[in-house]
Amino acid sequence: MALKSSNKVDTNVYEIEVTVAPEEFTQACKDAYLKRRKSIQLPGFRKGKATQGMIEKLYGEGFFYEDALEIVYPAVVTAAIEEAGLRTVDSPAELDVKTISKSEGVDMTMKVTVYPEVKLGQYKGLEAVQLPTEADDEDVANELTNMLDRNSRLVTVEDRAAEMGDTAEIDFEGFVDGVAFDGGKGENYPLELGSGSFIPGFEEQIVGKNTDEEFTINVTFPENYQMEELAGKPAEFKIKLHEIKKTELPDLDDDFAKDTSEFDTLDELKADIKKKLEDNAEKAADAEVENKIYDTILANMKAEIPQVMFEHKIDDMVRDFEIRLSQQGLDLDMYLSFVGMDKAAFRKTFEEQAQKTVKLRLALEKIAQLENLTVSDDEVLEELKKMSETYKVPVEQLMNVVSPETLKTDMVVTAASKLVKEKAVIK
Fold first, then answer.
1. pLDDT in tens, 51-65
2. Cβ contact 130:287 at 8 Å
3. Which end of the chain lies in a sparser environment, N or C, as judged by fewer CB atoms within 10 Å?
4. Which CATH code fits 285-426?
């Protein structure tokens, strides 16, 4: 087999012509016969006992050509692409078999889409602003307030009327024009006064009422209310107030720290909160700097990227999403029915991120090339050992899933990313 020619016919598209020697194709025909003979029966022969020659005499010499071509095709095409020095992004297309026979071998052409040429602008010395990462007393106090809220409890109020912020347990039934309407009735419903859960004016009229009190509330449904038959209409609600509860917060002291954390004192808890806030802020600031640098690189990048590269990335993202769904006991079709979306619209939601991911990958690969960044086989092996320890999988088994060459490329890309961040000017 041999690469006969390789010609650029369009942007990122090459046509290659490949030949398979007669003897190689003849052997492929024999292999095809051996593969299929058990299923072939000729008159006068037991099933599987007919010779290749007899079959070809009866049905024609080309009887096994299609199967033989399928046998030689993968290796032939792979070798031809490598010989041409092409890096493809998709399977070959537009196959045209010009010659096929045992005597002449095979002569065929096909088109392959290759990685685009990438031109970069400045990628070193890029400027980015570092967001502040220090947490002040107010930040710590806000987090403590959140912790107090999470650890609060509701206690029954017996010595006063309902106030905003209380939770009122009520029975209610609504009437429009003296007639009860669907969905307007509830029993022992816990309503937080001031939450805005009910229509305007409802919660306010419970304020000032006492436990076991029965009363009437008059409100008007908003003009844009979701139930058209009620929109803009006045309504009367009959209410019985069963119970009033208020939120009780724990005391902010050492006991609170002991009950809600691994620390013995409130000061220790505050110090830990401050550290975590600053760690998170630092991660967010680093991510912002990184995104700014990447955005600048991509803005200055020039490349005509084949659409198929974006589609492949979307395929990957959809597949990852499906895996996450399956872990929740759902499949994609079920999810799409829930959100009222078809598959085309769903794929489109990944489009922007897929484009950015592909462009960034190409840019970083180009930077690695320009900077002569390399990763040794020993470094790849060390990374595989780390992955082995993380996932508790033997290295040999891991190599069946993670290609060392792919991992090497990923590590080179990571090195390029590290370089542009190290060379950036952070203000």
1. 898 889 888 999 999
2. no
3. C
4. 1.10.3120.10
